[in-house]
Amino acid sequence: MGSDAATVIKQAHKECPETPFVLSQFGMSAVILPTSEIETVKSLPESQLSIKHHHYNVFLGEYSYMGTKADEFDAAMRHILVRNTPVILESFVAEVDYAVDKYIGKCEEWTPIKVRHAMSMAASAMSGRAFVGLPLCRDSEWVASTTSYTQDVSRAYIYLRSLSWFTKPFLAPFSPEVRSLLRHRKVNVEKLEPLLRAKQAKSAQDGDEKQGQRSFETRANDPPGGEMLDWFISRYRKSPTAHQLARDQLLVTFASIYNLSNALSYIIFDLAAYPEHVEELRQELKEVTGTTGVIDKISLPKLRKLDSFIRESQRMSPPSIANIPRFVTSPSGFQTSTGHVIPPGNTIMVRADAINRDANLWPEPDKFDGLRFSKLREQAGNDKKFQHTSTGADNINFGHGIWACPGRFFASAEIKVILAYIITNYDLKLKPETGKPGSFHYGFAILPDSEAEIMFKRRD
Q1: Where is this region: Disordered (predicted)?
Q2: 16 marked among binding-site residues
């Protein structure tokens, strides 16, 4: 049924490009809007079109915190994280050797690696370094919880969608799927409690006016890591509890690791499938970073070919066939430019694949061109355009407008650090008997083959 959704959207866009239509997937119905509605949808406030309400409904906010009121989390993500990518970058660089070497390994000979699993573990380790720092980011129970959390949310979603509205309140709290989410809460609280106490004690000892203050100052005496936890703490008027920080950590875990793992998997598939690009990327890394391949805040924006390759991989393998999801909250509904009125209580989305494969935007849209966007940026006036993190009417894979993903800069930086390490230290190739791994559709989501393997070999 999932693959049918992609077919339906593609066919509808071809036959009726400006007409909304309803599509149902796994108990969820959404009105799929034409791309001409992007500018209207992205600008309307929560009181009319709500992304939080959508997230609460779809991602089980009662149990996952998604879509719940989390002002401190929102402030940290939208106002602090975006301005402090260089600080986060130091954590990624400090952890990448450990993460990749542990979850991909030495690979002295050609070795098959399950890419989705390896990338999930590596992304968890590197994100964890920024989230909570050492030693917690390498704690086996913590890592197991962060890597399985989003999968458990998906399992709970599938189960709860099978229940009627009448039986759900009675059966849900006792189901194994929901109880697993509650266990993740418990693990997070137990692990964060001593860390929070230690930070509070240090803050009192140092005389900081506000916890988290050190995150904005020189951290020369501290190893990189744990910046995000400090930022979350700094947004609370009073000292937060471990339960509040656990909520923040689960929210950022859900928002980052799952999508990071999928994106990295697709990129690794593409590196192996299009080896003609690998040497170009290595050469760029060498020119920009020297022989080490280590990225810093100065070299990061100079990696235009790598940025282009990542965006092209995302264009060809986006996270979803439709995006910019909103729940209609306006009592009068949402009126499209075509005059259609979507009543309150409905979910709307914009067809994303129509943009990603639009021949008017991208010549030969079904062909992978890893340098497509770096070549576009060479044209006059395009220097700051067509970046991996850019959003607009030509790219809604990160959303667009006031609710565009604030973590996209975090994600892009982490992806580049991991890829720089892999490209510098490993050769890759497809398994000859299987070819390039594929993807599958689940509802509106597009997911990489979790069992697919790519051959890795350590470079001399």
Answers
A1: 199-223
A2: no
